[in-house]
Amino acid sequence: MTRIKRVIKAIDLFAGVGGSSRGALAAGVRVAAAVDYWSLARDTYKSNFPGVHFLNAKCEEIELAKLKKKVRRVDLILASPECTSHTCAKGNAPRSETSRRTAFEVTRFAKALNPRWVIVENVVHMRTWKSYQKWLNELRSLGYNVKEQVINSADHGVPQARRRLFVMCDREREPQQVKASAKRKKTAACIIEKNGGFKFSMLRSENRAKATIERADRAVAALGASKAFLLVYYGSDAAGGWQRLTAPLRTLTTLDRFAYVKPTANGHKMRMLQVPELKKAMGFPEGHVLKHGTRRERIKLLGNAVCPPVMEAVIRTLTNSNGRHENP
Asked: Which one of the listed residues 83, 88, 169, 190 is annotated catalytic?
């Protein structure tokens, strides 16, 4: 007898700007509900996924019995718990264990909703968290086979070298290794909008910080005065504070971090990368709407997001399907 295959149904926790949901849709998955407590994330998410039931609350505030009645069956949980207190980008600033422990909301939802699959995305440094093994063991105690993998977004057609930890869980079989889906890496050059009408300023000006000029000088010394390049304008950088356009963009953060520098007849000019360019750098499709909040807030949304093509590849590998699976 032929078994009927049904559409995989998912819920997106810590949904943010909707990167995981966008990847899920590309993989043929139906997203039934999403959760995030930031009102700007809510507005942005609802502009892009108007048919998804959105809960504007912290995950720990959600009454799961009510949610289960609303969404009924859930096959897949997607989750990107708070990462700020795991990441090295926080430097020596104090860590919040309360923030870190949002990961345990994943196991609470999994226990109540009983999905076959769970995918958790976070920064690589999550593995150094003192409760990381305890958290993994909780997932295993719920009957999941668990696989951890660090994935570089550049291996999946995203013009950014963004390494993230993915924890993949399947109740019925061992998760498989996610293989690179792109034959060639995209470079930072493909995100630059050269005809976007964005305003430039002279690189060498009285108000420009000495460190910025020094970074630019290192780039010019390496490339020559006729080549454009990217400057790491804010934040620390161990690679000289600049990068070539012929390589994938370095990791996008929640800060307005990268400047585009180009040579002109009057000397080098520069401008910060703009939201449309950063959206491309994250692998979002052109139709994904980012119209809410200030420019600074939209950059923060993008810096916290999941790259959709990576999530699509992870879902396809884990479920071994095109968004459908057999009825039990």
From this structure: 83
